[in-house]
Amino acid sequence: MALTDRALINTILQECQNSVAAGHLTEYRTLERVKTCAWWPNRKKDVAEDSQTCDRCQKENSATAKKFGMMIQIQEQKSPCEIAHMD
Fold this sequence. Notes:
about 90 residues, mainly alpha
């Protein structure tokens, strides 16, 4: 049976994003979670719009998260005390 009640669809979208187990995942993972419990026309589009307008999803999504620093190559020491590092 297809859902047509907009309020129920919004409730399902919120539960699939805001519940403790959901954790504001990526659009794809949220869609996979929604697929397990409900179907309605344009479900994929609704999940995409909801994920793109959710502030927490945008902040916590790994694609928009702050990147870690780049690794640097450590110089090889040729004699004692040639290279000194400080923290």
